[in-house]
Amino acid sequence: MWLVxxxxxxxxxxxxxxxxxTGPHTHLVAGVLGVAAAIWLVVMxxxxxxxxxxxxxxxxxxxxxxxxxVLAWKGLSAPPTANIGLRRxxxxxxxGTAVTDLDLHGVVRVHGENWSAESLNGxxxxxxxxxxxxxxxxxxxxxxxxxxxxxxxxxTESGSDRSQP
Length: 165
Known about the structure:
Layout: H1 2-22, H2 24-46, H3 51-77, E1 95-98, E2 105-110, E3 113-119, E4 129-136, E5 139-144, H4 148-151
Parallel strand pairs: 3-5
Antiparallel strand pairs: 1-2, 1-4, 2-3, 4-5
Helix pairs in contact: 1-2, 1-3, 2-3
């Protein structure tokens, strides 16, 4: 009987902690396991097992069950707009700087992160300001404010035949 009680109590604690990673549905499961553990402890008390230890364990498991039950209820009843801060920021229109020379391809820094990028208007020197035109996965298409083509209008680079957005 003590083995079953120990397993139930261990499961309650484990699933409650797991719920902080996986969400309110797991907290609900921890609450249900806590009720099952409480019932098991009451059954053990009626059979004459160590009443003082069982009362301490019963109080503990009820406190944990109520706590994770409240967490589950708040998480499941929260309106969908509560997670609006978790939406992905769009990169289109964002400004950044070229980390490497973009001789058609290179690396840029936008929102504090490095991204692989393709220049849409010619060669962009490292350190030049850029603006993101399009984001496809982890690859950005960017427009450079100062390109070699703008500084040297007579040069013909591989990206100079593209039109301005």
